From TrEMBL:
<feature type="transmembrane region" description="Helical">
    <location>
        <begin position="89"/>
        <end position="114"/>
    </location>
</feature>
<keyword id="KW-1133">Transmembrane helix</keyword>
<feature type="transmembrane region" description="Helical">
    <location>
        <begin position="232"/>
        <end position="253"/>
    </location>
</feature>
<feature type="transmembrane region" description="Helical">
    <location>
        <begin position="17"/>
        <end position="39"/>
    </location>
</feature>
<feature type="transmembrane region" description="Helical">
    <location>
        <begin position="173"/>
        <end position="195"/>
    </location>
</feature>
<feature type="transmembrane region" description="Helical">
    <location>
        <begin position="134"/>
        <end position="161"/>
    </location>
</feature>
<feature type="transmembrane region" description="Helical">
    <location>
        <begin position="45"/>
        <end position="69"/>
    </location>
</feature>
<keyword id="KW-0472">Membrane</keyword>
<protein>
    <recommendedName>
        <fullName>ABC transporter permease</fullName>
    </recommendedName>
</protein>
<keyword id="KW-0812">Transmembrane</keyword>
């Protein structure tokens, strides 16, 4: 356990500059939205900026994870580490996840402050969209975890191929080939009617989408009243793929790939 805590602390020290930098960017963009709203006379502009900041969190966790992996690639500490691949990568995923959640909470707080600070004459939302906000956070976070696992897999796969001198300079072609094959197999499976019916067998009801408009002295936003069935099984399948890729990546690290 002490070794794991040591890895957590090391990853925190090597990545905290990225987190602090991102927090500074969030505050800068938010301030820019406030200024732009004041200049244009549209106080709702800042709410649009907050929504954009939330969408940007698709990249926060993957970027922080990739930055930590780049550090490992430069130092090559993993090549001589006695720890398993699981223990080496899990602290990085935990740190990146904590950073992403912390910055997302900051954006949520800024969003609440922005909505509460709107003039009484402005009706951006007809109600406080707490439920939709939670679903938005969960959706963005799940997608960010997905991207992070793919980045980890491609990173380990890329360096694993480096052990073969004949293909070391064209490793990126194998990465591209894997993506094409995976997408082709997925598209082929989805072309079967029985697969589509299976994926549509278990659904939940969600709003059809989100829309907002900002005009001169006028703004409106909200979720469409139309409710559509949202399939769950495709995400369960994607989760299984993520677990498989994570196990393969840890196995590659256990093989002491030269990073």
């Amino acid at each position: 356990m002490s070794a794991f805590k040591g890895l957590l602390w090391k990853d925190f020290k090597t990545s905290k500059i990225w987190f602090y930098g991102w927090i500074a960017i969030i505050l800068f963009i938010y301030a820019l939205g406030l200024i732009l709203g004041r200049v244009t006379g549209e106080p709702t502009v800042v709410v649009v900026f907050v929504i954009m900041l939330g969408i940007f969190h698709l990249a926060v966790m993957p970027v922080i994870l990739f930055s930590m992996l780049r550090v490992e690639g430069k130092t090559q500490l993993w090549l001589h580490s006695p720890q398993s691949g699981f223990k080496l990568i899990l602290p990085k995923l935990i740190i990146a996840f904590i950073y992403s959640i912390a910055s997302f909470l900051l954006v949520d707080i800024l969003g609440v402050i922005s909505l509460a600070g709107l003039p009484d004459t402005v009706n951006f939302f007809s109600y406080w969209p707490f439920k939709e906000g939670i679903l938005f956070n969960l959706g963005i976070t799940a997608a960010a975890i997905n991207f992070s696992i793919w980045i980890f897999f491609f990173w380990t796969f890329y360096y694993a191929l480096g052990k073969f001198p004949a293909i070391k300079n064209i490793r990126w072609l194998f990465i591209l080939g894997f993506i094409i094959i995976y997408q082709s197999i997925t598209a082929m499976l989805m072309s079967f009617g029985w697969v589509q019916k299976l994926f549509e067998a278990w659904t939940i009801d969600v709003p059809a989408g989100f829309a907002f408009s900002v005009g001169q002295k006028n703004a409106d936003a909200g979720f469409y009243s139309e409710i559509i069935p949202f399939p769950i099984l495709p995400f369960a399948f994607e989760g299984l793929v993520m677990v498989t890729l994570f196990i393969i990546s840890c196995w590659l690290l256990d093989r002491k790939v030269e990073v």
